Each structure stands twice: as structure tokens, then as C-alpha cells.
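#lab-general

N.A. 3:47 PM
ok so I finally got the sequence cleaned up, no stray characters, all 271 residues accounted for. can someone with queue access submit it? mine expired

B.Y. 3:52 PM
send it over

N.A. 3:53 PM
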Amino acid sequence: MKKGIRAGDLTLRSLSLLYLGFLVFLPVIAISTEAFRGGFADLWRQISQPAALYSLKLTFLLALIMAIINSITGTATAYVLVRYRFPLKNLINSLIDIPFAIPTVVTGMMLVLLYGPKSVIGSFLQKQGIQVIYSQPGIILALIFVTFPFVVRSVQPVLVELDKDMEEAAHTLGASKTYTFRRIVLPVLRPAVLTGTALSFSRALGEFGSIVIVAGNIPFKTQVSSVYIYGEIESANVQGALGTSVVLLGCSFLVLIVLNVIQRWSLKYGS
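B.Y. 4:20 PM
back already:
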């Protein structure tokens, strides 16, 4: 019986590793090999092209801005959904996952219809000198919409498990809600907030569908890395696309390492 179980476990593990190999490892090896085929000097030449360098800087900057906004609004939303009761709470909680369910191109279309120059809101903002669509604020809005659930869904389970008696005891002793949240709740939530923020940042680096609609693909203004890569492939400059892709891939690996450190820290902190 034990031999049968061990044989079954070995088969399951082998199939899982084989599946991961074809799905993840082989594509990563393939793109890395092709990117370095011409040597590091050629790769660096492709990355240091003005348009490529600008697209990378813009991508990381906008993703960072989005991550900061998401870390604050996502944590606040999770706290409200867990700690308060209000009408349509279950419906609103379900709507949080909509960005996961709809195509990102649809997200771009929704934002264009809402904030475009022909819309009521868009025309009003343009009169105030604020352009959303075909500008960097539109990209940030698209990234926020697409990645918003990451922080909320990372923080919610921790809040559900957090003993509310500690907060009530602090309130009884005269502590304000803000002080209680900052000194009691936030330290416990910090690993989950960092995890959700890192996931949203990593997801934002590769976002394409919504951005290609709202950004307008304007070089040195709204052209982010994913759109730049697509343009290089369309122009038959595969090496140029590979260079930028490897940078994004390396950053994704770095985020995975950071997440692993956060999870280890969370386990140690929880114990």
C-alpha cells in the first residue's frame, strides 16, 4: 500500500514538474537564450536605445505610482468590507473581482468612453487643462483598475483572522480609531499589504490590453514597455523587443524573490 502511494506521489510530482517545465521554464530559457544570442553588448545596445529606455523608465514610474495608490486604497477597501456592515456589501465585495473577469481591452474601452475627449467628464477635464486619455493619467487609471483586486484580496483574509478584541480593548482605553489602526492593525497587515502591492506592481509591468487603448502609443510620451515591445515586433526588430522583454522578466523574478522574503517574514512574524 505504501509503495503504491509512494509511486502515485512520484508520478504526480513528475507530471507537475514536467507541466511547469513546458509552461514556465522552457519559455523563460528560450527568451533569455535568444536575447543574449548576440552577446551582452548587443543586448545593452538594444536596451539603451532612447525609445526603449524611455519606455522602461515610464513603465516603472507609472507602475510605482499605481502601486502606492493601490496599497492605500486597497487596504482601506479591505478594512471597510471586513469591519463594517452596509447595504449591498456582498454585491460590492463581488464587484472587486470584475477586473479579473473582463478582458483588459474592454477596460481600455470603458475608460475611453468615460474620460475620452467626447465624453462629459473628459470634455470638462480638458477645459480645466487636464487630459486623461492619450496621456499618462489615463495609463495610471487603467493600471489601477486592472490591479486593484490584488491588494484587497491579499489583505482581506488577514483582517478576517485578526482578533477584533484587541481593537475594542484599545478603544476602551481611549485610543482613537486612527491610532488603533496604525499601532495595532497595520503592523499585522503589513506583510499582506506588501504582498498585494508587489503583485500589482509586477502585473502592471506587463499590462498591454487596456494601455494600448488609452495611451495612444505616443513615443516619448505614453509608450510603455509592453506597447514598445509590440511595436518592435511589428517592425521586425525582434532583438529590440527581446532586450526590453528581458528587463521586464528580470524585474518579475526580483518581485518573486521579494514576495518569498515577505512570506518568510510573515511566517516568522506570525509565530
